[in-house]
Amino acid sequence: MRAAGLPNCYPADQVLGLPRERHSLGLRRLVVLEAVRGSYDHALEAIERRCGARAVGKRQAEQLVRAAAVDIAAFYAARTPDPAASTTLLVLSVDGKGIVMRPGHLREATRKAAERATRTFRTRLSTGEKTCRKRMATLAVVHDADPAVRRPHDIIAPPGGRTTRRAPRKGPKARAKWLTASVQHGADQVIAAAFDEAQARDPQHHRCWVVLVDGAEYQLELIHVEAARRGVTIHVVLDVVHVIEKLWAASRCFHTATDPDAETWVGAKAARILAGDALGAVSSIRAQADRLGLSADQRAAANRACRYLENNAAYLHYDKALAAGWPIASGIVEGAARHLVADQLDITGSRWTVPGAEAVLTLRALISNGDFPQYWIFHTRRERERLYPRPDQHNYELLA
Q1: Who has the most CB within 10 Å: 60, 119, 142, 230?
Q2: Distance CA 46, CA 40 (A)
């Protein structure tokens, strides 16, 4: 018998290590691994092929996935990163990706925007209209890299192409990558988590911290606030791929889509920016547009590119970055956004709740980090402690 107000005790279940739910730990692990690879329907088909029968329903699978993700934050809080030399770069990068949500799970601002939106057509969207159905997920990557000194022509080929006399130098190679993502929490919390990971890798701030951004103002503000709060010096670098994309858009003001000279034009402007003369490139683009007498509509893309370069001029010192051996492209976090969100959470027709999307997103990040085997051991131990708490005899006092 048990005393009033105390939970029941099941000694046989504790010896067998049975979970709270009716599904075994092995089945729960299988559900998680299959569910984060694709749709829940495909996951259930794979489980049925493996088990020979419908062992779990769709709603139960969703619940098991959410339950499996509850200890991820505690797992990483208890983990100690491997140390690195003081000469090793510490690189952080941040990106955002929208996820289509069910109406009741949008952020308040997005929901109000959807209510205010006026529709031109009843059955479809017109040009420029948005559905306001997405909630932004924030992703952050932290990794180590050894410096790799380069020159502008190692990044982009000079006019006329490269010669075979010298191969382009390779950039810094990322290692010990750590990825985090969240759709439930705001960008400030995700960026703080990335800084926590960086702080754990370099608690004394002896290493060089490089932060790669795409120019989003709200992310830049949060990054600077977090760095100031921790008293760490960071070197912010604008992703060069975004810069080159802006230049390609601007080239359409001066060249047709199939004109080979457009590539030469982009290469010349990019090389000038990589050499540290971004404002000079802006002046030359505007001067060319004035010389050709382009109208406001004809030069719109060029003006957008110039404003983008001017607004981010403080982060365009690629000459110093290349000489110091820093990375200048945020391809790792861009690829992570496609892998984590687009490949699974952006399946055609899918509509997510915040808890469901958060669980799948964090589990996919965990698996991408290569930490799932260790996490599953940690999670099952925590589950056992929650279900079968340790005896509390040590709280009793001997009175006789």
Answers
A1: 142
A2: 10
